[in-house]
Amino acid sequence: MKSSVLVFLLCISSALAYVEVAMNCTDGWDWFKRSRGGWCMKVVLREKFSIYGLIQVFSEKINQGEAEAKCNEEGAVLAGVQNGDEVKWMAESLVKLVGKGNIWIGAKRSIPCRSVSGFTALCTDLTSFYWTDASTTGFLGFKKWLVGEPTNWGLYQHCIVLSSTARLMDDVACNIKATGYVCGKVASF
Fold it and tell me: Which residues, if any, are the signal sequence (predicted)?
């Protein structure tokens, strides 16, 4: 009798524990599984069009605030980096678009670490920044730094770019211009 009740309770708890994961992304967006559910991302370049007898399309570099605003226009935010697979996808996506460059990702330096250059007990390579996208969790994404980074050189490097060639992150001033940015948004059912 006790074993029957236990089996019944296990079956009920398994059925209740099942949570459907949203898996649909808009065309041009790629799907990723995250602990908080399905997540859609795309790497974007800011393109300019010039028409002087012929059409030219070229990429214009963009700062972090502009990149965030562009993502917001699409109902998205700058995306954080959950793991190494996402770093690889971001870098490869940028290479396909322009060959090489840097993209903005969704992270900011935490306020207690803004006045610190280098590392302290509180401000390490894993804890100096936080994810801004409300989907990325943990510190695993912060393990992909260029050698010696993050430094907060000059005490104003409060944003992060990802290099397509090195596939590593660098802390930079938020007003510098990067090649592109990566947007993320919750997947739909």
Answer: 1-17
Q: Does pTM surpass 0.90?
A: no
Helix (H) or strand (E) holding 15: helix 2-17
Q: Are 77 and 60 in contact (CB under 8 A)?
A: no
Using the CB atoms, write b or e for 59-85: b if 16+ within 10 Å: eeebbbebbbebbeeeebbbbbbbeee
CB 90 within 8 A of CB 39: no
Residue environment code for 118-130, b if the CB has 16+ CB neighbours within 10 A, otherwise e: ebeeebebebbbb
**What CATH class is the domain 22-186?**
alpha beta
